[in-house]
Amino acid sequence: MPDQSFPAYRRLLTSSEFDTVFKDNHVRVSSPEFLVLAALTNLPASRLGMVIGKKNTNQANDRNKIKRAIRETFRKNFPHQPSVDVVIVSRKAVDPEFPTKLNTILDEIWSKLSRKISTKVDNG
C-alpha cells in the first residue's frame, strides 16, 4: 500500500519559506478559485504551502475541507522531480461543498503547473 502521509519535509512551514516563493516565483498558474506560485528548488522533494483566508472562506470546517483536498491532490500529482516550492492561495470562488468539482479543479491546476515547470526547466 502506498504511503498516504504528508510529512513536515513536504510542507512550507515558516514565513521566510513562504516569502521566498512569493518574491522569487518562477511559475504562476491562476484560476477563479486559486492562485498558485511555484519556485524551483534543489531539495529532494516538492513542498506545499497554503493560504486559505478567513476573508474568503468563513467557516473553519470549510477551510479544512479545502486544505485536505489541496494536500491530497498535491500528494498524488507531485511526487516527481524537479522539486518545487508551491504556495496556493484560495480565492472567494472556492466552494468546498462539492468535493469532486474541487478535486477536478485542483487536478487541472496541478497539470497546468507541471507543464509550465517542464517548459521552464527545458528552456533553462
What is the element layout, followed by pairings?
Elements: H1 15-23, E1 27-30, E2 34-40, E3 47-51, H2 60-77, E4 84-90, H3 99-123
Count of helical regions:
3
- Could you say what the CATH architecture is? 2-Layer Sandwich
* CATH topology annotation: Ribosomal Protein S5, domain 2
Structural domains: how many = 1
Q: Compute the gyration radius: what is it? A: 14 Å
Shape: globular
Roughly what is the average pLDDT, rounded to an integer?
89
The description of the largest β-sheet is:
4 strands, mixed
Per DSSP, what share of the residues sits in E-state strands of 2 or more residues? 15-25%
Determine the structural class based on helices, strands and strand pairing. alpha+beta
Distance between the termini: 37 Å
How many β-strand stretches? 4
Which series of helices and strands comes N to C?
Answer: HEEEHEH
Poorly predicted regions are none
Give the neighbour order of strands across the main sheet. 1-2-4-3
In CATH, what is the class?
A: Alpha Beta
Brief summary:
This protein has about 120 residues and is an alpha+beta fold. It has helices at about 15-25, 60-75, 100-124; strands at about 25-30, 35-40, 45-50, 85-90. It has one domain (about 10-115): Ribosomal Protein S5, domain 2 (2-Layer Sandwich).
Structural commentary:
This protein has a 4-stranded mixed β-sheet, with helices on both faces. The longest helix is centred in the last third of the chain and has 25 residues, at 99-123. It is of the alpha+beta class. It is globular, with a radius of gyration of 14 Å. It has helices at 15-23, 60-77, 99-123, and strands at residues 27-30, 34-40, 47-51, 84-90. It has one domain (8-116): Ribosomal Protein S5, domain 2 (2-Layer Sandwich).
